[in-house]
Amino acid sequence: MMAQYLEIKEAHSDALLFYRMGDFYELFFDDAVAAAEALDIALTKRGKHLGEDIAMCGVPVHSAEGYLLTLIRKGFRVAVCEQLEDPSEAKKRGSKSVVKRGVVRLVTPGTLTEESLLEARRHNYLAAIGQVRGEHALAWADISTGAFHVMALNGAHVPPELAHLRPSEVIIADGAQEDWAEAVSETGAALTPIGRAAFDSAGAEKRLCALFEVGTLDSFGAFTRPELSALGALVEYLELTQKGKLPLLRPPQREDRAGAMQIDAATRRNLELTHALSGGRAGSLLATIDRTVTAGGARLLERRISSPSRSLAAIQARLDAVSFALEQSRVAQELRDSLRKTPDLDRALSRLGLDRGGPRDLAAIRNGLQQAEAIAALLDPFDLPAQLSAAADDLTGQAELLDLLDQALVAEPPLLARDGGFIAAGYDEELDEMRRLRDEGRGVIAGMQADYAKQTGIASLKVKHNNVLGYFVEVTATHADKMLSPPLNETFKHRQTTASQVRFTTVPLSEMETRILNAGGRAIEIEKRLYDSLKEQILDHFAELSQTARALSEIDLATALANLAAGLDWCRPDVDDSRALDITGGRHPVVEAALQAQGAGPFIANDCSLGGSSDIWLLTGPNMAGKSTFLRQNALIALLAQAGSYVPAQSAHVGLVSQLFSRVGASDDLARGRSTFMVEMVETAAILNQADARALVILDEIGRGTATYDGLSIAWATLEHLHEVNGCRALFATHYHELTRLPDKLGRIENATVSVKEHDGEVIFLHEVRRGAADRSYGVQVAKLAGLPASVVERARVVLDALEKGEREGGGARAAVIDDLPLFAVQPAAPPPRASAPPAVEARLAEVLPDTLSPRAALDLVYELCDLLNQRDEAAE
What we know:
ATP binding; 30 helices; MutS, DNA mismatch repair protein, domain I; 7-stranded mixed β-sheet; 18% strand; MutS, DNA mismatch repair protein, Chain A, domain 3; Nucleotidyltransferase, domain 5; alpha/beta; MutS_con_dom_sf; nucleotide-binding; 6-stranded mixed β-sheet
């Protein structure tokens, strides 16, 4: 056995070998040591090899999926080695013969199909990067749904597309690790090099033609050599990992990079589109707006958010579908009720295609088709918009398959085919008979006993059973002569005589005995045969069922976005080919949701107007006032509009955005030796080098990571470049108030500020954006709010006043002021001053007797006190 193990392991040296032994997968040698540590299970030993103990650990077969998931998440690949024959067959070759075993599958991050190993609401992409003569292509597939895509692009665009897809695994040509390691690591994907021969474009074309059983790929599109290279490598890797059992893939679909809004990795991270900065899904835009009720609809929403369209026709069609669902709210709710009962057709189909499915996947297809017909009936009376009309057409046409599955399957099948019990009674006569024998054997024998008693005229005749004779007919000795004489002796054959009984058998009784004893196993065999037959008939309809699954996802997404818009008072955006970004009452969807969850009051809505007389807003105001939120919310509104969603605003006019860039927030990248400022500059450089005239750029605090004049100079030059060279729309937030003079020199820049109010030395954030420039940053006040010791805050005020005085006096006055400032004296923090009301208010309150006030008098008093406070504020100004 160990010789067999070592031979199989040698062929899969880069993976942990799950070696099947009965009800366990066993691991040996170094595999056992690594797996025991990763899985936190006991490490034991089994025999010796070359004089050394053999390390061993194992996991039960029935719970192996959970262990596989843990290993995959920790970066391991697993080769699953199964027994390829029954142990009884091996024994026929000799008592020491080893059961035949072989690897049936390589489990890798990008090739998972099991329901328990996958996230239902997101794709699990396997990607491949192809390169031919300096040209690149990216192919990707989700074998759990059959999705198969390819895109031609230059090398610089590969990292942004990987960030968009967030694949689980990326295949590259052996030797190209250095080129792609950084880009792949940013997505968290596993990097898998394979032989360069797999990327040969000529061989790839043959592999693809064989896979789709066509003579040429022309009907799928005109693929470039790099595209064929990437597609072929992906198929080659699937053949390798699935051991020739290829998944059901749809024909490859060519994607045009120019057809979608381009969003780089930094922007996706800064805007928290599908994952929050903390790393999880919670707190992201996707998690906030996801009201889909099917797994397919959730995956479609993620695709739309990750890759908003640049096609006006596609955007309008999606918005029309949402509008219909909003207008027909009652029907939309009925649709959502039906969709909640709809299983994940795509993944059920995939498991069946890879022979990893079970009876519940058959039932999932049946239930999905039932719900599809119900949904089609709900939509039938309406004049549907184009997108919903096309979806409704794809919901029907599978009546014959549905009838077959409805007749064949029980309502709630078991998980595994080997358990049996999933074929409905009445579907197969032979199966019904076997079940009757299995479940009602005693009744069948009792019936035969009655027949034999009638035939012989012996009322006391019995049919009995023991372990020696099996079933037999027994009569008393007094009836022996009758049974042994013609014509009964022709039917009843003598078996045994005892002191008082005589026993006989018959051919039908012997046959029935055999059938009863084998009925259970035979019933399972029949059900397995019927399972295979039903599976093949489902797979014959793969294309049509895939269309139905997509249609259900489209309807789910349209009704989910309508539910979102109705619940949160979102508006339909006007999307056109202009340069406008004109938003009235815009809100940040994630921040607003967080405020509502905390009961922290309403979100302050704000307007934004770009693309008319001004393409760039220069936004000033204090920290904590909401500048970053304002920048992000306008970017998200543009993104949502082009994804085909209503938006959080009173009204929104969005001219198509070709690229979305965001440089908001500060973080370092110590792993690559980059400081916070270096990261900021790298991201800013990417924006200035790539943004075109239709881009939307949001920049926050450019230059803050270095010396004041260095930072100001960089911010100034960046703003000029956006205005003069890129010519794009931009929101530019800064604390460098010197930049507020630029609108006088650059005609398409306009100043805007976030309003605050100062009261008794305290700063009150109003979170309102208005045109104009801020007079100062209020940094000291914000520091006080943050809880800095009072002595530090007071010292900061002194220094600030001195520096501002030096700045006003000009020349070397600032340096002189710094030299003249006394050193900071550490003193215990003074207790905070006791807030007191103005004297007039105190005097008036001293005259009041609360117990004598009527409700009306109390209200009048409140107004009177407010007037006194306002008079004090006006006098102070």
